[in-house]
Design a protein that fits this description.
The complex is a heterodimer.
Chain A: H1 2-51, H2 57-62, E1 66-67, E2 74-75, H3 78-109, H4 111-126, H5 130-148, H6 156-180, H7 184-192, H8 197-226, H9 229-235, H10 252-259, H11 268-297
Antiparallel strand pairs in A: 1-2
Chain B: H1 2-17, E1 40-46, H2 51-64, E2 68-73, H3 77-85, E3 91-94, H4 104-108, E4 110-124, E5 132-133, H5 135-142, E6 160-163, H6 169-179, E7 190-191, H7 195-204, E8 208-213, E9 222-223, E10 225-226, H8 233-237, E11 244-252, H9 257-266, H10 269-278, E12 282-283, E13 290-291, E14 297-298
Parallel strand pairs in B: 1-2, 1-3, 5-10, 6-7, 6-8
Antiparallel strand pairs in B: 3-11, 4-8, 4-9, 4-11, 4-12, 13-14
The chains are: A mainly alpha, B alpha/beta.
C-alpha cells in the first residue's frame, strides 16, 4: 500500500525536480550571458579608443589634459583617476573609524539598544537615493566649507564627506556581522585571564576580525568609487588635479555622466568616455579580487 | 566568435529593453476611409532642454489622438541624434544642428524640424555690480585672462566660473554666438550639467558667473546685458540679441503619418503661442531672423 502510494508520487516529483533544474539553469545562463555581454560591450567600446581612434594607452592614463572636442583632441584621464581614488579613499578614512565604533558599540557594549535602534537607523542610510545626498551636500556641506575654508567649498573634501555617509552602512553592517560571529570562547578566555573589556576589544576582538573589517572597507571604497550622481553635484567637475581639498576636481564617474548623453555614439569623444568606463570596470575587478583575498586570510 | 558575441549581446539587450519596448517604426497608417484618425506609437528622445516642451505637448496630443502613443525620453542631444540616425527613435531632439555632432553623411539623412528657439543669457551672482559685459570681456573671463571683477568694472572680487561640460549644447551655443571661440576648462572652474544646479550655484557662490537659458532665469540671480543688449524674448526674435539656438526635432527621412501629425501639431499656433511661450521658449514662428548651420543670419 505504502509502496504504491510512493510510486504514484514519484512521477510528479521527478517533473517538479526537472522543472526546478531547468528554471535555475536558465536563470544562471541568463545571468552569465548578461555579465559577459556587459563586459564585452564595455571592453569593445572602451578599447576602440585605442584600436580604432589610435589614442595611446599611456597618454590616456597619464595625460593631464582632457579636451575631447579640441584641436587636437586630448584625452588625459589622470585627473579623473586621481579624483576617484582620492575621494573614495578619503571617504573610507572618515567612515571606517565611525563604522567600527558603531559596530563595537552594537555588539560589545550595548547589544540590546544598539541592535534594536542603532542598526536599523544606520541601514536606513543605505536606502536614501544618491541625488538626495548630493542635494544635501550642495545645500549644507558646500556652503559650510565655503564660509569656513578658502575656496568655493566645492571639491574633494565635500565629495568625500557625502560619500563617507553613503558607505557608512556597508562598513558598519559588515563589521557588526564579523564581530557578532566571533566565537564566545575567545572573549571568555580573555576575561578569564583577567583582561578588562577594553583590553579584550582592543587586543582580541579587533585583531581577530581585522580581515573582515578590511573587507568592509574595500567594499565601501568600491561603492564610493562607482558612485556618480552625489559626487558629481558637489565636486565641481573641472578636469584638473586640484591643489587643495576645496578646489574643483573631477572623478571618472562624473566625467562619464556629464558628457555621455551629449556625445554621439561612435565618435572619438564618446569612445574615450567608454574607456573611462572600462577603467572603472577593471577597478571593480581589482576590488573584488582584494575582497576575495582578504576572505581567504580570515582567521575565523 | 565576435559575431556570436554580438548576437548574444543583441539578444540580451532586446530582452532587457523589452520593458521599455515600443514600436519605433510606428504603424502610422491613416485610415483612408471617412475620418482622418491616425494611429501609431513612437519614441522621441534626446535633449533635456527640450524635454519639458515635448512631454507637455505629447500629452495633449495623445488626449486628442488616443490611438497614438508617444514616449518621451531625455538623454542628451548626442543620444537623441544617435538614436534617430540609427532608427531607434522616430524623433531625435537636439539643441544643436545634426551636422555639429554627426558625420556629414549621417546628418544628411536627417530632416530638421525647428520647433522653438532658446535664448541664452550670461548670469552672475546678485552681489556682482557689473550689469553689462562686452564680447571681449566675456572672452577674457571664460579663457582665464581676467580673474577679478575689478578688471571689467566691478568690485575687487575673484571671478568664479560656473561652466557647462565641454560636450553640452548650451555651452556650444554660448561659445559660438557670445564668445565667438571655444572656452577652456579652467582650473578651479565648476562644471555642472543641469541648469537647476547652475542656477543654484550662481545664486549662492560669491563672484560667480555662468549662463542659462532664458526659461531658467529668476530673481535669485542677475542677468547681464550682452554688448548693451538685454537678453529678452523680443530682442532674440528681432535679431538684436545674438545668443540663441534652435531646438531641433530631427526625423530620419520624411516622417510617417503619426509623427508628421505630431510635428505639425507642435508647429501649430495653438502650441507655438501656448505651451512654447508658457514654458519659456521662443516660438519658431515669431523669429524675424533665420540662421543656418554656419551661423549666417538672414532676415
Amino acid at each position: 500500500m505504502a509502496q504504491s502510494l510512493e510510486r504514484q508520487k514519484a512521477k510528479p516529483h521527478l517533473v517538479e525536480e526537472w522543472v526546478g533544474k531547468v528554471y535555475t539553469l536558465l536563470c544562471i545562463a541568463f545571468l552569465i550571458i548578461t555579465i559577459f555581454s556587459i563586459v564585452y560591450f564595455v571592453a569593445s567600446k572602451g578599447l576602440s579608443t585605442f584600436f580604432v581612434n589610435h589614442v595611446n594607452v599611456i597618454d590616456l592614463l597619464s595625460g593631464l589634459k582632457w579636451v575631447p572636442e579640441g584641436e587636437p583632441a586630448l584625452f588625459g584621464a589622470l585627473p579623473f583617476i586621481f579624483g576617484s581614488f582620492s575621494t573614495s579613499i578619503l571617504a573610507a578614512l572618515i567612515a571606517a573609524p565611525l563604522g567600527f565604533c558603531a559596530a563595537v558599540f552594537m555588539v560589545e557594549i550595548a547589544p540590546k539598544f544598539g541592535r534594536r535602534y542603532l542598526q536599523p537607523v544606520i541601514e536606513l542610510l543605505a536606502g536614501i537615493p544618491s541625488v538626495v545626498y548630493g542635494f544635501v551636500g550642495l545645500s549644507v556641506i558646500v556652503p559650510f566649507f565655503r564660509n569656513v575654508f578658502p575656496g568655493q567649498g566645492i571639491g574633494i573634501a565635500a565629495g568625500a564627506i557625502v560619500l563617507s555617509v553613503m558607505i557608512l552602512p556597508t562598513i558598519t553592517t559588515i563589521a557588526t556581522d564579523a564581530l557578532a560571529a566571533l566565537p564566545r570562547g575567545l572573549k571568555e578566555g580573555s576575561f578569564a585571564l583577567g583582561a578588562t573589556r577594553w583590553q579584550t576589544i582592543y587586543r582580541i576582538v579587533l585583531p581577530t576580525t581585522l580581515p573582515a573589517l578590511m573587507t568592509g572597507i574595500v567594499l565601501g571604497i568600491a561603492r564610493a568609487f562607482g558612485e556618480a550622481l552625489a559626487v558629481q553635484m558637489v565636486i565641481g567637475n573641472a578636469p584638473h588635479i586640484p591643489r587643495s581639498l576645496f578646489e574643483s576636481a573631477s572623478t571618472l564617474t562624473s566625467a562619464i555622466t556629464l558628457s555621455m548623453g551629449n556625445t554621439a555614439m561612435g565618435t572619438i569623444a564618446n569612445n574615450a568616455l567608454w574607456s573611462l568606463a572600462l577603467i572603472l570596470m577593471l577597478m571593480t575587478f581589482v576590488f573584488v579580487f582584494i575582497v576575495r583575498w582578504l576572505e581567504g586570510r580570515s582567521k575565523l | 566568435m565576435k559575431k556570436t558575441m554580438t548576437v548574444l549581446m543583441a539578444l540580451t539587450l532586446t530582452v532587457a529593453l523589452a520593458a521599455c519596448g515600443q514600436n519605433n517604426k510606428g504603424n502610422g497608417n491613416a485610415s483612408n476611409g471617412g475620418g482622418s484618425e491616425i494611429e501609431g506609437s513612437f519614441l522621441a528622445s534626446g535633449s533635456s532642454a527640450l524635454l519639458p516642451l515635448v512631454e507637455q505637448v505629447s500629452k495633449k496630443f495623445m488626449e486628442t489622438n488616443n490611438k497614438v502613443s508617444i514616449q518621451v525620453q531625455a538623454g542628451g542631444s548626442g543620444t537623441g541624434l544617435t538614436q534617430v540616425s540609427e532608427g531607434q527613435s522616430a524623433i531625435g531632439n537636439s539643441d544643436v544642428f545634426a551636422e555639429e555632432k554627426l558625420d556629414a553623411d549621417k546628418a544628411a539623412e536627417l530632416v530638421d524640424h525647428q520647433v522653438a528657439v532658446v535664448g541664452i543669457a550670461a548670469v552672475v551672482n546678485k552681489e556682482v555690480t557689473v550689469d553689462n559685459l562686452t564680447k571681449q570681456q566675456l572672452v577674457d573671463i571664460f579663457t582665464g585672462k581676467v580673474t577679478n571683477w575689478k578688471d571689467v568694472g566691478g568690485n575687487d572680487q575673484n571671478i568664479q566660473i560656473i561652466n557647462r561640460p565641454s560636450s553640452s549644447g548650451t555651452r556650444a551655443t554660448f561659445e559660438k554666438y557670445a564668445l565667438g571661440q571655444k572656452s577652456e576648462d579652467l582650473k578651479g572652474s565648476i562644471q555642472e550639467d543641469s541648469s537647476g544646479t547652475v542656477n543654484k550655484l550662481v545664486g549662492e557662490t560669491p563672484g560667480a558667473i555662468g549662463y542659462l537659458a532664458l526659461s531658467y532665469l529668476d530673481d535669485s540671480i542677475k542677468t547681464v546685458k550682452y554688448e548693451g543688449v538685454e537678453a529678452s524674448v523680443d530682442n532674440v526674435a528681432n535679431g538684436t540679441y545674438p545668443v540663441w539656438a534652435y531646438e531641433h526635432m530631427y526625423t530620419k527621412g520624411e516622417p510617417n503619418a503619426a509623427v508628421k501629425a505630431f510635428l505639425d501639431y507642435m508647429l501649430s499656433d495653438e502650441v507655438q503661442n501656448g505651451d512654447v511661450v508658457e514654458l519659456g521658449y521662443i516660438p519658431a514662428s515669431k523669429m524675424e531672423v533665420k540662421r543656418d548651420v554656419e551661423g549666417n543670419i538672414t532676415k
